[in-house]
Fold these 2 entries.
Entry 1:
Amino acid sequence: MYTMDQAERLAAEALRQEFGEWSDQVALFGKGEFAMEKGDFFYFGFQSVKYIETRDDKYFSYGPNCISVHRETGECRFLDIHEVLALGSFNNG
């Protein structure tokens, strides 16, 4: 069974693998406010590094910017827009 911290490290590694040479352009977003546990999964939001640094909307990466990590297996998966909407707000946990 994985902890939130371990799952966060797995999600960050999945981003690096998914985006390859562009991996320095995206990162997990926030200091925990875009991370939550729900059921058998941990969920993490990610965003462009330039947006995280500047909060300038021109750098905002639109779309389903969320990755899930299975609590038991550690499997990481990028969610589609319907899955992200079904999760609800990170603020509501």
Entry 2:
Amino acid sequence: MMFGAPAQRSTIEVPVRVQLGGGMRLGGGRQRPSGGGWWLRLVVLATLGFGASLWFTEIGADLDGVSPSPTAAAAITPIAAGTKGNGAASATAAAPSTRAAVAGAPAGPAEVAPPRLAAPAIDPVRRALLGAARDHVARGVYATRGSVPDLRAIKGSSVDLVERALDRVDFPLRAALLAHRAREPRRYGLKSRPGANDDPLRVLDAANLAAFLDAYAQRVEAVGDADLLPGDLVLFKPRRGKTQFAVVSERTDARGVSLLFTLDPADGVAKDQRARDAVTIERHWRLESPSLGEARRQLGLPRAPRGATG
């Protein structure tokens, strides 16, 4: 090595070969096409296709998880179940989305349950009839053939059941019968007014109560299950014995036939298991508050206390 002389650079040439996907080689050596490059193209195309499918499916799932804007949500009209029309379209539209939520995506809007329909209101008089009938069954009131005037007695007849129910709405049934018989004696089979000799202890029977109901209650001609409402009154003929009253229950038997509250001497005590089609119904009434109010006004009965009906 000599000092002061410029240093000479030594270069080493290294041939570099690069093979392209098209089968061409660059660098030293002869360029010639490669016969096996077609399969590489297929691999590249398959990879691109798989990536595109992932894009549309996974990204689409993310977009589905995003809550819609209030404007867009308001424009959506839900299809109610049971709506007439295209059944398949309705079922598809009504079915909830089964797509799983993507982790980290905002939650969708909470489902709001449809409002419950309010139960139909029942008139206070029919409610009182149902309450008295349930009370008689719960206490095991003994059934008698004649009327028992005591409102809290452990025994009584079917007409006593009606009187005790109306007492719950402060309507004096015996006083109403006495006044109505004096007002319209022929309706009760009398030729003249009974006057002061009319016995309040004996005035309450099935025939007199039926005449009173014909005058003031709503008469329902049909007696099918669709026409019976809970708390309605029916006059029926049992398989043996005299006609008597029953209160229509809110329950039905396994066949869907309405049940009746009865106070039949043949049963011994108050029951709620008699099916409507097991007896012969002769008359059917619906007694409600306006009817008792009209009877109170016409017959000059004392006004009911505040809060009472009838």
